[in-house]
Amino acid sequence: MAASLQRKAFWGMVWNFAESFSLQIIQFIIGIFMARILQPSDYGMVGMLSIFLTISNMLITSGFYRALIQKKDRTAIDYSTVFYFNIVVGIILYLVLFFSSPYIALFYNVPILEDLTKVIAIPLILNSLSQVQNAKFAIEMNFKMLSKISIITAIITGISSLYMAYSGFGVWSIAYSSVIGESSRCILLWFFANWTPLWKFSWKSFREMFSFGSKMFASGLLESIYNNLYTLIIGKKFATTELGYYTRANGYAQLPVATFNNALSKVTFPMFCEVQKDDERMILLYHKLLRFTAFIIFPIMMLFIVLARPLILFMITDKWESCVILLQILCLSYVWHPVQIVNINLLQAKGRADVTLKIDILKKGIGVLVLCLTIPLGVVAMCIGLIVVSLISTLINIYFTKRIMHIEILSQVKDLCPPLLYSLFMMIITYFATSLIPQNGLRIFVGGVVGIVTYFFVAYLFRSKELQYLFEFINKKKSI
């Protein structure tokens, strides 16, 4: 049993990191070409709608999807119940956005948003049709198939968006390509899942999953509203181009974090659920994941900070220079997000959705307070506020993990300190190594090489446990 779980966990991590990395590379390359063709105002208009779309998607994906995975004695009726519930939610959310589109356009005083909302919200219905199939693959830990589907979908979306952008569709190239991409994903999930719903909806099954799922709904709603408050406020109070700069900077800052968040969310939650009755194994797994996550994500984000200017100027030209400082600040904010993901998944696997909801309410309350204080100071100050909120949120997560799982705060902090110190040292060396190089492309290359070599050399010099975990993964791959 333990060996089987380790094999599933290992290959789950491999395939999810492969999927996430491949997706980010594809989206990164497509994004470079798109940013060269489109204007900051185009991204600003799509950013104005992000709060409505993200909230809607979160309501579909965060609640009963996770309840289905967390439930140990799930049946065919459970799957069908969640399927029909998701469809109803998806249709209702689309209709709400469809009939609200004139008011959204009026709120921002951008008339094109009325038609744009009606098109860009279509994927909500498509997403609701495929969530059970997605959960089924996750429960079976068949992340290989999910990875293939995601990569194929990203390629189709990227090709269609580039074609339409070069054909002069402007902002509509983003809207139509999202519909094409989600349609492709829905078709592929239905084709490969080998599952069809029963013609039955069980209120008993619904009520059993509602206790957990409803709290996930609430947490997802809070998370979505808070994460998109910035685009809402910047779009309302500042120029559309300012929102475009923020949207691009935010997108690039999230690239490495999204890779880890996707992999960690998809793999660690089912892994923790498998051993949810064995606290000792859960705690051991938690420490390893925490150290390994920090070991990978900390240096990547620090490298992004050092190389932010040459990256932006080299990739998408100097018309986007204003987003350099925003990218650097946001990287410092997002560096802690994967750490929070590990903590939250641990608590959710124990069935403590009530605690995660309390944590979300507390963190979002602090976040809104900081946001209100920084709005008068401008977009840069608002982003700096995110760093403060991220640090406080991480400490809150660590505290509640101690309360529920009795994992000492000091032991959690000790897990994070070594990779953080290695990363800060690497950042300093990389900065001085590239500061006198005038060519942006050469600075990126030299900075990348110097940063990676320095980081792994320091980690090896101090015999870091994180590096040992990495070698363990490599050795497992050879032995499996």
Automatic annotation (TrEMBL):
<feature type="transmembrane region" description="Helical">
    <location>
        <begin position="444"/>
        <end position="462"/>
    </location>
</feature>
<keyword id="KW-1003">Cell membrane</keyword>
<feature type="transmembrane region" description="Helical">
    <location>
        <begin position="21"/>
        <end position="39"/>
    </location>
</feature>
<dbReference type="Pfam" id="PF13440">
    <property type="entry name" value="Polysacc_synt_3"/>
</dbReference>
<keyword id="KW-0472">Membrane</keyword>
<keyword id="KW-1133">Transmembrane helix</keyword>
<feature type="transmembrane region" description="Helical">
    <location>
        <begin position="368"/>
        <end position="400"/>
    </location>
</feature>
<feature type="transmembrane region" description="Helical">
    <location>
        <begin position="289"/>
        <end position="312"/>
    </location>
</feature>
<feature type="transmembrane region" description="Helical">
    <location>
        <begin position="151"/>
        <end position="175"/>
    </location>
</feature>
<feature type="transmembrane region" description="Helical">
    <location>
        <begin position="324"/>
        <end position="347"/>
    </location>
</feature>
<feature type="transmembrane region" description="Helical">
    <location>
        <begin position="45"/>
        <end position="69"/>
    </location>
</feature>
<keyword id="KW-0812">Transmembrane</keyword>
<feature type="transmembrane region" description="Helical">
    <location>
        <begin position="81"/>
        <end position="108"/>
    </location>
</feature>
<dbReference type="InterPro" id="IPR050833">
    <property type="entry name" value="Poly_Biosynth_Transport"/>
</dbReference>
<feature type="transmembrane region" description="Helical">
    <location>
        <begin position="420"/>
        <end position="437"/>
    </location>
</feature>
<dbReference type="GO" id="GO:0005886">
    <property type="term" value="C:plasma membrane"/>
</dbReference>
<protein>
    <submittedName>
        <fullName>O-antigen/teichoic acid export membrane protein</fullName>
    </submittedName>
</protein>
<comment type="similarity">
    <text>Belongs to the polysaccharide synthase family.</text>
</comment>
